[in-house]
Amino acid sequence: MRKFYGIISLLLVFSLLNASSGFGYHAPTHRLFNMRIIENNVNGFSLDSYLRDELALTGGIKQKFQSSEGPEI
Predict the structure, then answer these.
(1) How many helices and strands, by DSSP H and E, does the chain display?
(2) What are the two backbone dihedrals, phi and then psi, of residue 56, each rounded to the nearest 5 degrees?
(3) Sequence-ordered strand ranges (E) for the chain
(4) What is the pLDDT along the chain (73 residues), one digit of tens a residue?
(5) Distance CA 13, CA 5 (A)
(6) Which residue pairs from 34-37 have beta carbons closer than 8 angstroms and sit at least 24 positions apart in sequence?
(7) Where are the chain's structural domains?
(8) What CA–CA distance (Å, rounded) separates 9 from 65?
(9) Contact by Cβ (8 Å): 72, 65
(10) For the chain, does the N or the C end have fewer beta carbons within 10 angstroms?
(11) Rounded Cα gap, residues 63 and 73, in angstroms
């Protein structure tokens, strides 16, 4: 039983030490990812085509939305 708790403790410590790899990217990196996806085809995926064809947003990536709480976004 003592060996079992030792193994569990090691796994827990290892998991906590390795947890930083699960954190997300910082805001500037997310912004770069988003811009790349918006402006380019990524692995055959086009956001503009997807918005036009699948979601029927005729403006694609340039589609404007009117918010009931404020100015156009």
Answers:
(1) 3, 0
(2) 55, 35
(3) none
(4) 788 888 888 888 877 776 665 566 778 888 898 898 898 998 899 999 999 999 999 999 999 888 777 666 5
(5) 12
(6) none
(7) 25-61
(8) 52
(9) yes
(10) N
(11) 9
The two structure tokens encoding residue 39: 């402006």
Q: What is the pLDDT of residue 53?
A: 95
Backbone angles phi, psi at 47, to 5 degrees: -60, -40
Q: ∠ CA 53-54-55 to the nearest 5 degrees?
A: 105
Task: Look at residues 61, 41, 42 and name the one whose alpha carbon lies nearest to residue 51.
Answer: 61
Buried b vs exposed e over 4-13: b needs ≥16 C-beta within 10 Å? eeeeeeeeee
